[in-house]
Amino acid sequence: MDDQSWTNIFFPHWQPPDWINSVHGKNQHFKPFPDLQRNWILGRLVARGRRASQDRTQVLWLLVRFEKRYTRKCVAKVFPDYTATDAQSQLRRLPSRIPRKLMDVRDALDPYLNDARAFQRIGISCPASQRIYFPAFYGVITDLSASKFTSGYVNS
Length: 156
What we know:
Blueprint: H1 6-10, E1 40-45, E2 58-66, E3 69-78, H2 84-91, H3 102-109, H4 111-125
Helix pairs in contact: 2-3
């Protein structure tokens, strides 16, 4: 295999977008999840064989209330907190091309931020005809209360 970079492989005919090598802090604004008049809750884990845990990303059914019944409409991801301790453990494993400041590592490797940024970039960069290849993204919620959970692990 030759030493061609991944950006040259995926963007052979044009300049890669500016966001390819950027790292953003937690103050980045993401599309908020529509309120749906608060008629929704998070149901059971989608993967029944996977145990809920404080340190794992959970994929739960999002149930919407319609005529006194809750119906599965889509899935929601619940991310564990990515702490400074998590970033510190990753810091020594990073190659030299990745920033070495703890906050930069935290911003670059936080699973929630990476997922939200990916969906934001898909929305910005892909025409509607190509979005069918990606899961639909409705927005983020950062202040989930325990009352929205029927199962799974609630991060406090």
